[in-house]
Amino acid sequence: MIISLSLVLRTATRLIMPLLLIFSVYMLLRGHDKPGGGFIAGLMAGTAFALYAVAYGTEAMARLLRFEPHAFIGGGLLIALLGGVPALLLGEAFLTGLWWTFYIGDIAVKLSTVLIFDIGVYIVVLGVSSTIVLMLAEET
Amino acid sequence: MDLSLHPHWTVWCIVVPLLAGGLAVLVPRWGKTIGLIGAVLTLIVVGGATLQLLSHGPQRIEIGSWGAPLGIQLQLDGPALMMLWTTALVSLPITVYARDYFQTPQQQIRFWPLWLLLWSTMNMLYLSADLFNLYITLELLSFVSVVLVALAGPNAVRAAIRYLLMNLLGSLGFLLAVALMYGAYGMLDINMLAEQVEATPLTGLALALMSIGLLVKSALFPLHVWLPPAHAGAPAPVSAVLSALVVKASFYLLLLLWLTLYSPLVTRELTTLVGLLGIGAILWGSLQALRASRLKQLVAYSTVAQLGYIGLAITLIDVAAWQPVLTFIIAHACAKGAMFLAAGNFQRAAGHDRMALISAALRALPVSVFAFALAGISLIGLPPSGGFLAKWLLLSAALDSGRWLIALALVGSGLLTALYVFRVLERAVRPGAALKPVGRVSPLMEWSALGLGLLAILLGFAGMWITQILAEWPV
Questions:
Q1: Out of A81, A87, A88, whose CB is closest to B18?
Q2: Helices (DSSP H) in B129-226: which residue ranges?
Q3: How far apart are CA B10 and CA B58, in angstroms?
Q4: Which residues contact B110 (CB under 8 A, 6 or more apart)?
């Protein structure tokens, strides 16, 4: 893939990409009972990297990912599965959501094993979409 | 009775190979090690699941603690346990074999995650009690198998694509049936549905779609056309898995649905039709195996023929239910696994698998020939092999219920099987020049084939055990 010569696109990407990534994390966190979740958020992060690939080329994108996209798929799968394990250790059924609430001042922060699962899904989807982008770029 | 007591082992049967597969993607360099450790651990957790069944009886697990109409349930009973064991026992030697079989790192990197994922999917299929989840396992099974077939290189791509298209058609039929059932009854859990199902035209349509879909996937004649090129073209360990386990998984599912969900609709006419197709499969498959010009093609057509027996066995489900079919599935899984591994050894040594020129390779690898012969004994159904046990059960069920045609087909087809098995074995005793080996066959590759062959024979002595488990914990 050719590196885009458009200065507008390249500059805009530097601004938009962090926003997309931050927004994807927001989507991931709010996803438990509102629209969003690991899958959508992962796609969004994938879009951010795809945009970077269009602006700066696939090699730069692969460098930015740091690891092989395959490693994201495997690692994400492991994290998602590990999210189901604490329930097993407590004698509940596999993947049962366990909640842990603590307070920072007056704000209740709820953490759960479901979040671990969702983070795993996020990473898998990011890995898959990056793989697709990289492979499509290789073809042309 | 509290069914959700100690549910861990059952879940681990799915999670352990999946975890190992994830690790194999993450650290491709250690694929071989992870594969072996994953295989051994899976065998151990299947053992754990057995203990669990022995001490607590059938299990039902609500994943994520979500109840049946909403969530997905796993179910461990006698037949599922038999399938778990079959898969584990056949997969372990295949894992050992594959460690030496794949030579390029590229193949290794791709094989191990896919293989472990395939294993996990098969276990999920046996344990799942939810129609939609079953559809997902079927779909995963075909996608993973197709990629595994294509690992053989550019020559296998055509066969892989054909495999993919036929299996997608099968999945589509299954999915449509699931949608119809959900529309009619508003639930997907097999056990809850079984209480509600009535013999309406809609349910009949769902049954027809689901059965055709599953028969395409289990390659019953005349829907078998995708099987021989795919199973013959795949790398040897993959052929072994596909022939020994993957086609059986959809047969298992067909039987499960017919015996539980659709039992009010499954009539004698329907089972007789499947039986007739089975006879057709035996004749056609054997004939093609006799004509095959390549060894792996011969073994693949033998699978087509042997799947015909399962069709025959299905005609007897009203008198014998699970036992003959499952015994046959297990016996054939071990025998066909051994045959394909042995065939892979000959192919590796000779650099090809053309029947006309294979005899030098057969002479050079006596252990593999022995494995092939043991598997052949089980396929023909000579005592004391597992194949004999399965045929004996089928034959006595057929005679008890006075179905002479089936009994006749069973006995006659043994001879056909013997013909194509001896067509290979005869080449091992032909005189000729010594082989100039093209590829190296490691001792482990030979011994894992032999292990499976021995298993196929020893299974003949496990009859009591199978009967007991199935009698005590039916679905």
A1: A81
A2: 131-150, 157-185, 190-196, 201-217
A3: 11
A4: B147, B151
ipTM score here?
A: 0.79
In whole angstroms, give the CA distance from residue B314 to residue A15: 65
Residue with tokens 């898969």: B87
B292 in Cβ contact with B304 (< 8 Å): no
As given in the structure block, the two tokens for residue B67 are 């109840």
Does residue A94 sit at the B interface (CB-CB below 8 Å)? Answer: yes
Task: Collapse the DSSP code of B322 into the 3-class scheme (helix H, G, I; strand E, B; otherwise coil) and give the result.
Answer: helix
- Minimal C-alpha gap between A40 and chain B (Å): 20
- Of A114, A110, A122, the closest CA to residue A84 belongs to A114
Give the pair of three-digit tokens for residue B425. 């074995």
- Tell which residue, B395, B266, B274, B385, has the closest CA to residue B334: B385
**8 Å CB contact of B64 and A97:** yes
B48, exposed or middle or buried, with CB in 10 Å at 0-12, 13-18, 19+? middle
Q: What tokens does A110 get?
A: 């709820």
Q: How far apart are the first and last CA of chain A?
A: 7
Q: What count of CB pairs under 8 Å joins A to B?
A: 56
Structure tokens at B290: 């006799």
Q: DSSP letters along B212-238, please?
A: HHHHHHTT-TTS-TTHHHHHHHS-HHH
Nearest-angstrom CA–CA distance, B104 and B272? 48
Share in percent of chain B as helix, strand, coil (round to 5): 80, 5, 20
Distance between CA A121 and CA A39 in Å, rounded? 6
Q: Which of B15, B26, B64 sits opposite A81 (nearest CB)?
A: B15
- Expressed in angstroms, the distance from the first to the final Cα of chain B is 16
**pLDDT tens digits in sequence order for chain B, 475 residues long:** 344 445 578 888 998 999 999 899 888 888 899 999 999 999 999 998 888 888 888 878 887 777 777 778 888 888 999 999 999 999 999 999 999 998 888 888 889 999 999 999 999 999 998 999 999 999 999 999 999 999 888 888 999 999 999 999 999 999 999 999 999 998 888 888 888 888 888 999 999 999 999 999 998 888 888 999 999 999 999 999 999 999 999 999 999 999 888 888 888 888 889 989 999 999 999 999 999 999 999 999 999 999 998 888 888 887 777 888 888 999 999 999 999 999 999 999 988 889 888 888 888 899 999 999 999 999 998 888 888 998 888 888 888 888 888 888 888 888 999 999 999 999 888 888 888 888 888 999 999 999 999 999 998 888 778 888 887 777 6
DSSP-assigned letter for residue B130? B
A86 CB within 8 Å of a chain B CB: no
Q: Where are the domains of chain B?
A: 1-127, 148-259, 267-475
Chain A nearest CA to B16, separation (Å): 10
